[in-house]
Structures are given as C-alpha cells and as structure tokens.
Amino acid sequence: MSVGFPDFRLGNVLATSFTGTLSERHGEAVERIPTPHRLIDWLQINGLNVESCTAAQLDRARELREAVHAVATAAAVGSDLPKSAVQIINDCSIEGRAAAILTAGGNRLWRLSSPARVEDALGVIAADAISIIAGERDGRLALCASQTCQAAFFDTSQSRTRRWCDMNTCGNRQKKARLKAAQSRSAESPN
Ligand SMILES: [Zn+2]
C-alpha cells in the first residue's frame, strides 16, 4: 500500500482501467499514477511485473494513456479516430516484447522480456486497447454519463446500458445527487 497517494479504480478491462488512472478529466482531475513507483504498483496489480520505472517511462505511459483515452472516446461516439493518438498506440504495441504464457492451471500470465521494460507492459496495454477499439471483444465502448468524468469504458453488461465508468464512484455520486434533489423537492412542497 502506498499511503498518501490516490487509490486506483480497478476495472476488469486492462486498457480502460489504465485510462482510469487519470479521473475526473472534465472536473478536478485526479492523477492516480503521480510517480514512477505508482505506475509500478498499478502494473503489478494488473499482472505486469516491472521492477523499475524511470521518469521518461512514466511520461511514455501517460502518453499512451491519453492516446487510448482519445481514440476510445472517438470510437465510443463514432467519430474519426485521431491519427496521432492511433500512431502512439501502434508504436507502443510494436515496441512491446511481452509473451503470453499459459499456466498449468489454464490461466494466462504475461512474461516481459526484462523486468526493467515498462515498454513491454505498455505494449500489452496497447494491444488490449486495439482489441476493444477494433470491436474484437464482446462489449460496447461508451462514455461515462458523469459530466465531470466522461471516461471511456467498455460495457460488457448483458443489456449494454451501463451509464457510468465505475458504479462505486461516478454511479454512486449520481445516485446520491438524485436522492438529495428528490429530498429537497419534497421539503419544498410537503403534502
Ligand atoms: Zn465516470
């Protein structure tokens, strides 16, 4: 645990969990990977174990994150994909040299070419982003309904009607705001 740093919001889709490391992009933005060590922590939680990370590698990671955010947002609303962001995703995917390993128990692990290669981990994230943006996986890219968030997320619900990137934060806040509005309405007009 890293005390004093913002918590991570963990989803089950690697690429959009990664874009969630910067939240409230349209409000008071929260940077959840403020230091190289926090990127190491985030990667480890997501099965990508690197032992070191330089400031330049953190910059590269954030560059990829914003590229994924831009392209996923465009894909969610059906506009043209921004070329420079697509290029960054492709470059990161090409630079990565991680190998998928099947365990005896039938699970997939990622083996990086070196524990110092943050680039390998970014390659895995870039490839994950490509698979959801290209529509290869069962789900729908959508934008969070919270005006201060508008994060791109991957909706895998049966009905494809999920509205928030995260139920515990954005979804909950919306629910509380609705409740408060309803309470003040009933206080104004008691009957
Ligand atoms: Zn949200």
Automatic annotation (TrEMBL):
Highest taxon, organism lineage: Bacteria
Listed InterPro entries: ABATE (IPR010852), ABATE_dom_sf (IPR023286), Znf_CGNR (IPR021005)
Family matches, as Pfam families: ABATE, zf-CGNR
Entry-linked Gene3D superfamilies: Jann2411-like domain
Residues covered by the Zinc finger CGNR domain: 140-181
PANTHER family assigned: BLL6575 PROTEIN
This protein's name: CGNR zinc finger domain-containing protein
Species: Williamsia marianensis
Species lineage: Bacteria, Bacillati, Actinomycetota, Actinomycetes, Mycobacteriales
